[in-house]
Amino acid sequence: MDLRQRPARVLAATAVIVLCLALAAGCGTRREPASPTLTVMTHDSFKIGDGVIKAFEQENSCKVVLLKAGDAGAALNQALLTKNNPMADVFYGVDNTFMGRALEADLFVPHPSPLLRDIPDDLELDKGYRLLPVDYGDVCLNYDKKWFMKGPLAPPASLEDLLKPAYKDLLVVENPATSSPGLAFLLVTVGTFGEGGYLAFWKALKNNGVLVVSGWEEAYWGQFSAASKGTRPIVVSYATSPAAEVYFSKEKLEAPPTEAVTAPGTTFRQIEFVGVLKGAANPTLAARFVDYMLDRRFQEDIPLNMFVFPSNAKAALPEVFLRYARKAEKPVVIDVHRLEKMREAWIRAWTDTVLR
Amino acid sequence: MFFFYPLWRILEVSLVSPPGGGAGLPGIIAEPVYPRVIWFTAWQAAASTVLTLAAGLPGAYVYARYRFFGKRLLYALTAVPFVLPSVVVASGFKALLGPRGVLNTWAMGAFHMEAPPIRIEHTIWFILLAHVFYNHAVVVRIVGGFWSRLPPSLAQAARTLGASPLKVFTGVTLPLLVPALAAASMLVFTFCFSSFGVILILGGPRFATIEVEIYRQAVHLFDLKTAGVLSLIQIGFALAFLGFYTGLMRRTAHQFSPHPHELSQRPPSSAKDYALLFGNGMVVLALLVAPMAALAFQSVHGPDGLTLDYYRRLFENTTDGLFIVSPLKALVSSVSFASATLVVSLVLGLATAIHLSRDKGVFSRILDPVLMLPLATSAVTLGLGFVVAFDEPPLNLRRSVILVPIAHTLVAYPFVVRSLLPSLRGIPSSLREAAYTLGASPARTFVSVILPIVSRALAVGAVFAFTMSIGEFGATLFVARPANPTMTLAVYRYLSQPGDLNYGCAMAMSTLLMAVTTAGFLFLERVRFTGEGEL
Question: What is the ipTM score, two decimals?
């Protein structure tokens, strides 16, 4: 062997050793089965009080590991890919725009939780008890109150209002192909105008200067005049956003700077579900955790952490929710299986109409 | 292994037995959208590379040839953009250039205009500007580091022989710089080729690179087949380009006696020097520091004037789950991931670079471009690949924290190799042979001859490895991890809910991120300087 190559080899060997040590360290920390471990897979925006999780751990003398796997779409994708050898016991965060996919892939086992009696029937979209509703929020238009107070224009009361010349260049929406509120708003238009009419609405909206951005963050923090240096006083957001504006305000506001439009036919209800994964290492504990998520303690902690409504009707709502969070009067309803079949076609047609 | 195996598995799954339906290759070719996407991906990457080179070269020259007060801080700052999440960068640029940003407000006030004169949002210019913002440091560091090793005597000799300064530059300096220029532009190109966040957020939904399209297909439409085919196309294009480039570089490497950079640097003396320094400083200020300053300003600017409340909020340990990301914890996990990445990728990168610089065989000719692939491969694909690949003992890593630094290393490692290669190729073999003749062992030669020569390049590599990790590039955002959020993720989390407090905290966290990065750079540079003194 050429002598000159030795240093490289020494280094390579060192590298291998370093890697092995790293791996060994990684394996070592995981191999401590003192108490059973429950793994809950979810998306990055999942948030709940530390105490709530600790209470469950103590009651069941187990350890709960929260595995965050990207946004809701990416997380579900990973669950689908690892179907035959699941990474977790419980999966939380499938919403009704994607639940058809999860149900068709047969990811979850049925769990008819006794707590379903406290949950309104219209939230229980899966009658097979594989996916149980945990929380919901309505995607709708939000507007900048100050902006509308300054001028003669009234805030929009219906989708048709948005097509009037007076509302030119006022609206910002999210791309349904890359954003979940964006997709929900597309579904609102499909539900309200029908499959024959929604594209005409979007064409008219495009002519009236609708701005499309990639995600909620960019729409709200980048374009919405109430929250940024943007110029658009109407945005697609959630009916609970005004409550968050008050709760997360530095000056403890008395009234939110924004308001939600919740008129019939202008909103879509996003419901988030939890389920016990097929092939879970610890199905009994998993089922118990699902029950715990639907019970009052966990449910009452949901609003201020994730700014959505808890599904359990008995859960008490915090003050700021009672005063400022809105619920849709008559949200648009689309059957989950029809949605699963048509989603891609709708998005494709939307893209061709609005972006190209 | 940590790259090809996951890649292989995910492509196998998505192409052979996709869990969902999909169009497949014929469908993709038939769709007129995709050729357009591919073409756009390629030309925007090329344009970004050219612009970045143009913007970075003067900086590299100043970096290489001058000593002045505040130089280290200035150059540490230039690399900071790398770590910033694109949402945050977008907001920084918007504060400056948006319809109600500083420049437009000023222009409208000064010239009594009705509409904002600068309409850059959702245009290709915004994308290019952001790419220059992100990649400026790559050019400055790699080219500048290499440049400082060029003996000025060569240029001086040419001057003595009567060549004009322009002639000296094009005839002597530029050819010598080619390896470093090529290395830098290769990195920038690859980076822009797989650009994702910038396109999605700054470009708006009308622009799509292959990477954006893969993300859309895989994550939102669950069409793994299309995503898989697109990944292959992306890899194919990148590989073809990289192969061409590495081939070119092999033929252009020059050997020269390395020069201690202390001797080639001088304080500015003439008016011309000061003008150059000033001009370069202005470019850096306008392009890089201004958007960052805008961010820092927003972090201390509340609804009614200046405030430190957002920072106070960050460090308040409220127990009601209101702000469960403790910034200290986030900082610790960010820095420890970065350190792990740094060590592993430096060791691996050094070994590879040494091998590549000596071996001229077919194997390394193939290996060279292939090594760059992790940077050019879709992060989505790779992230999903990890999940599918490491699902069985002995490598059941899916839930392990270890996966994060591994994913980081994958993207950091090409940077280390690229930073090192130009310097290593430039070392004349006679130097090593001289050491052997004098009785030094290979290890001794390595420690006392090679290492000191490449120490600057090594530091450059280290800075990049650190940055790539802190900035959470590529696959990491798709790797599942237990709940120990890093600083970048904390920023995203604050931005995910309405309320001015959240926005303020996100900006404060970004400012902290910038501060930590700058501190990290300064520390790394310090380590290098003392190291060099001892050897």
Answer: 0.74
B13 assigned to some structural domain = no
Rounded to 5, what percent of chain A is helix, strand, coil?
A: 45, 20, 35
Same domain, yes or no: A124 and A143: no
Task: Kindly state whether residue B25 falls inside one of the protein's structural domains.
Answer: no
pLDDT at A299: 95
A348 and A229 in a common domain: yes
Extended beta strands in B307-354, E state = none
Radius of gyration of chain B (CA): 24
DSSP-based three-state secondary structure for A85 = coil
Indicate if A213 and A103 belong to the same structural domain.
no
Number of domains forming the structure of chain B: 1
Nearest to A227 among B344, B388, B498 (CB): B498
Q: What is the pLDDT of residues B45-66, one digit of tens each?
A: 888 888 888 888 887 877 777 7
Residue type, B508: A
Which tens digit of pLDDT belongs to each residue from B77-90?
A: 777 777 677 767 77
Query: How far is residue A228 from each of residues A29, A233, B47, B105, measured CA to CA in Å?
Result: 45, 10, 31, 15
Instruction: Please give, rounded to a whole number of angstroms, the shortest distance from the CA of B384 to a CA of chain A.
Output: 7
Q: What is the percent of chain A with per-residue pLDDT over 90, rounded to a whole number?
A: 49
B506: containing domain:
51-266+283-534
What tokens does B427 get?
Answer: 């070392």
**Is the pTM higher than 0.90?**
no
In terms of domains, do A230 and A295 share one? no
- Residues 6 or more apart whose CB falls under 8 angstroms from that of B528 comprise B455, B456, B458, B459, B462
Are B324 and A47 an interchain contact pair (Cβ–Cβ within 8 Å)?
Answer: yes
Task: Verify whether the Cβ–Cβ distance A217 to B87 is below 8 Å.
Answer: yes
Question: Is A230 inside any structural domain?
Answer: yes
| Residues of chain A contacting residue B309, judged by C-beta atoms under 8 Å apart | 250
Q: How far is A336 from chain B (nearest CA, A)?
A: 15
For CA atoms B343, B346, B347, B349, give the dihedral sign: positive
Q: Which two tokens stand for residue B224?
A: 């793994």
- Quick check: B82 and B161 in contact, CB under 8 A? no
Contact residues, chain A, for B496 at CB < 8 Å: 44-45, 216-217
Instruction: Determine contact, residues B464/B477, Cβ cutoff 8 Å.
Output: no
Token pair, residue A263, equals 């008129």
Residue with tokens 């008219």: A204
Question: Which residues from B are below 8 Å from A95, CB to CB?
Answer: none
CATH code where residue A237 lies: 3.40.190.10
Nearest CA in chain B to A64: B482
pLDDT at A50 over 90: no
Whether residue A255 is found in the same domain as residue A242: yes
Does some domain include residue B9? no
- Any idea which residue has 């930073």 for tokens? B419
| pLDDT value for A2 | 40
Token pair of A123 as six digits:
């939230």
Q: For residues A215 and A234, state if they share a domain.
A: yes
Domain with B154 in it: what CATH number?
Answer: 1.10.3720.10
